[in-house]
Design goal:
Bound molecules: adenosine-5'-triphosphate
Region (Disordered): 1-41
CATH superfamily of the largest domain: P-loop containing nucleotide triphosphate hydrolases
Structural class: alpha/beta
Number of domains: 2
Protein name: ABC transporter ATP-binding protein
Pfam family, one: ABC_tran
GO molecular function: ATP binding
Distance between the termini: 82 Å
Helix content: 25-40%
Strand order of the largest sheet: 6-7-8-3-9-10
Oligomer: single chain
Strand content: 15-25%
Domain ABC transporter: 43-279
Shape: elongated
Length: 412
């Protein structure tokens, strides 16, 4: 039996000549699932520079994707995600650095072997006159068929399986030029899957899909990654989906990969704000969703809510462009979380503690500066009993109190 040290030496990748000194390569990081850091990598880039003509768009790119892992690239429009994916797929020449596929330099792998190892799907619209959806998917088997392209029973099984998995078997006889964008996207994913790649490169694979199909497709990719140890590198615009589907996320911005890591860390409030220039408070890092901007200006309406009674009113006020204040709420409550994103002023108590006099005083101050109050509570509990004082303050000051937003007409 080979001794442990010899085996480690054999497995250890040679230290690459590295343009950027001591910066750790993601390949050296733990996988987090107990796998050793030197599991053979499906994809490894070191110091990769990508761009068009000789102009580098993204430089110094170190990526490491293990079999079974899903790496998602996120970044604003034009940041270079597609260019990077095309370079990894061998469609564009790197402007610098290296790309290794299962330990071999990409440009040394012959075409057929490369096609059996890697499939890539981009969002270009191909001309597809007079061919059926099944013809398109069958093209994914070309790396396995002879020069005549005759499909074996095994090839046919793969085609059918990929079409069934993507919900496109029912489209098999349809003219590919006359299916919807979403249907075509699912057919193209079927083609890529029936190529049985060990590395799948996808540019915006869910861009044309409805929400149900997006979830189905990402679940399918996750299942394939787990069951067949297929590695996936994909770009996604939907950061909520990226948060849910990715094992790791690489954030591209300003010509660099500015962060790589676990989804929660990569899509933190600070990172999303930096990547996309959105107001930090509008982003919910738990759901990965971004709210429309809160209405500008001083609050005109004070909303007394809590326990989920306020969400539709907060959104309705936001849609109408009416700035509002809300309180006293709990930060962990659903109303508290939404008010933090949409209200001009939100007054909070500490979670799990009764609403105290100090918070009520701040809420009264905000309320007395408003033209109307919407009270969505018919009663208060032991914890927020003091919110009743807000109603008393409104009535004492002659500020109209409405039971719902419909009664605000003419008041604001
Ligand atoms: N064939 C090309 N020749 C020259 N420049 C190009 C070419 N294709 C894209 N670009 C430019 O490269 C930059 C990056 O484009 P790329 O498509 O890689 O970005 P992206 O991050 O995928 O954007 P998006 O999120 O909008 O899809 C853009 O400024 C784009 O105009």
């Amino acid at each position: 039996m080979m001794d442990l040290r010899a085996r480690q030496d054999r497995c250890r990748r040679p230290a690459a000549p590295h343009a950027h000194g001591m910066r750790p390569h993601p390949a050296d990081a733990s996988t987090g699932d107990g796998a050793p850091g030197d599991t053979p990598l499906a994809l490894e880039t070191r110091g990769l520079a990508v761009g068009h003509a000789s102009r580098a768009l993204v430089s110094d790119v170190d990526l490491a994707v293990r079999p079974g892992e899903l790496l998602v690239l996120v970044g604003p429009n034009g940041s270079g995600k597609t260019t990077m994916l095309r370079t990894i797929a061998g469609q564009l020449k790197p402007l610098g650095g290296s790309i290794m596929l299962f330990g071999r330099a990409l440009d040394t792998i012959p075409g057929t072997e490369r096609a059996r190892t890697m499939a890539a799907l981009f969002t270009d619209r191909h001309k597809t006159d007079l061919i059926t959806c099944q013809d398109i998917v069958e093209a994914g088997r070309h790396p396995y068929t002879g020069s005549l392209g005759v499909l074996s029973p095994e090839d046919r099984r793969c085609v059918r399986e990929a079409m069934e998995a993507t919900g496109t078997w029912g489209l098999r006889d349809r003219d590919a030029a006359h299916v919807s964008d979403g249907q075509r996207q699912r057919v193209l994913i079927a083609r890529a899957l029936c190529q049985e790649p060990k590395l799948l490169v996808l540019d915006e694979p869910t861009s044309y899909l409805d929400i149900h199909s997006q979830i189905g497709m990402l679940q399918l990719l996750r299942d394939r990654a787990r069951e067949r140890r297929m590695a996936v590198v994909a770009s996604l615009h939907d950061i909520g989906m990226a948060l849910r589907a990715a094992d790791r996320i690489a954030c591209i911005h300003g010509g660099r990969v500015i962060f790589q890591g676990a989804p929660d860390a990569a899509l933190s409030t600070e990172m999303v704000s930096r990547l996309y220039g959105v107001e930090p408070a509008s982003y919910d890092p738990v759901s990965g969703s971004v709210e429309l901007a809160r209405p500008a200006g001083e609050p005109q309406v004070f909303v007394i809510a809590g326990g989920g009674t306020g969400t539709s009113t907060f959104r309705a006020l936001q849609r109408r462009g009416i700035p509002f204040a809300a309180g006293v709420l709990y930060p962990g409550d659903i109303d508290g979380q939404l008010a933090a994103r949409l209200a001009a002023t939100a007054i909070f108590a500490a979670d799990f503690e009764p609403v105290g006099p100090e918070a009520v005083d701040r809420a009264k101050e905000a309320l007395l500066a408003c033209r109307a109050v919407v009270c969505l509570r018919s009663s208060f509990g032991a914890m927020d009993a003091r919110n009743a004082e807000l109603l008393e303050a409104a009535r004492a000051a002659g500020i109209p109190v409405c039971g719902d937003i419909g009664q605000l007409d003419g008041l604001v």
